[in-house]
Design brief:
mainly beta, seven-stranded antiparallel sheet, four-stranded mixed sheet, globular
């Protein structure tokens, strides 16, 4: 039986200061229109922990999951298409040769499963000149039909409230997971859309995502900025892992 699983992103605001102790914890939903067989989805489980994350929790630093023995046999080294989007005016870029590639409002790139990337966000509404440097950590991948990988990327859609929380000094964490195809609701949705659902502040986003499906990415949006000392940049950018640009075809050059 063919199914249409859905990815859900759970976002938890973890205030770094006490002035927003009541910050909301939200869950965001996206729809990936990927046709998968349930047997394939079951075989693609990246972190076999018996439906729990006793060693993987929201307090882990970026990259910690892939340093564990459970990740040794997983799909590290595979490129997974990822699509970045946000509020109108915002642009995204990835590090390239000690600088950054050209910023784009709807950036898409192939990222290595198991790697941690620090990307840049500019053009934030209401914050002229401000920049954010979130991280995205791929802990799994999707399995679209062969040849259609770039049509079904992992969606990373950040909201205006996410960016404002980070600019205020808070940390926003999202866990994106592929919903269980046996229980997924077949509701069409664009990858740039999200539906927030509040969850308790003390609830672990990674464990919650694991209970609902298969976690595939963790996004952390904070207020860290690049170091002034160039010698510290490799640490800040997690060693500058390789990434593959994905270019959209120019309609003017396409055959009718």
């Amino acid at each position: 039986m063919q199914t249409r699983p859905k990815t859900i992103a759970i976002a938890i605001d973890m205030p770094e200061s006490s002035h927003r102790a009541g910050a909301k914890v939200c869950m965001f939903a996206f729809l990936l229109l990927i046709i998968l067989y349930s047997s394939v989805a079951a075989a693609a489980e990246p972190l076999p922990t018996g439906g729990r994350h006793p060693l993987y929790h929201k307090a882990l630093p970026p990259g910690a999951i892939w340093q564990s023995p459970a990740a040794v046999t997983m799909h590290q080294g595979a490129f997974q298409p990822v699509a970045f989007s946000g509020p109108e005016g915002t642009e995204f870029s990835l590090p390239l040769a000690g600088s950054h590639a050209e910023s784009e409002p709807n950036l898409m790139a192939g990222l290595l499963v198991g790697a941690v990337y620090r990307f840049r966000i500019t053009g934030i509404s209401g914050a002229i000149g401000a920049e954010l440097y979130p991280t995205v950590e791929l802990i799994g991948r999707t399995y679209p039909p062969p040849g259609l990988e770039t049509l079904y990327p992992i969606p990373i859609n950040l909201s205006q409230s996410d960016l404002e929380e980070a600019l205020d000094g808070n940390l926003v964490t999202r866990v994106i997971y592929l919903e269980d195809p046996q229980t997924a609701i077949p509701l069409a949705q664009q990858r740039t859309e999200s539906r927030p659902i509040d969850i308790p502040l003390d609830q672990d986003a990674l464990a919650t995502a694991d209970s609902l499906g298969r976690p595939i990415a963790i996004v952390r949006v904070g207020s860290k900025s690049p170091p002034r000392n160039p010698a510290l940049e490799p640490q800040f950018y997690f060693g500058f892992p390789a990434w593959a640009p994905i270019y959209k075809p120019d309609p003017a050059t396409q055959q009718p």
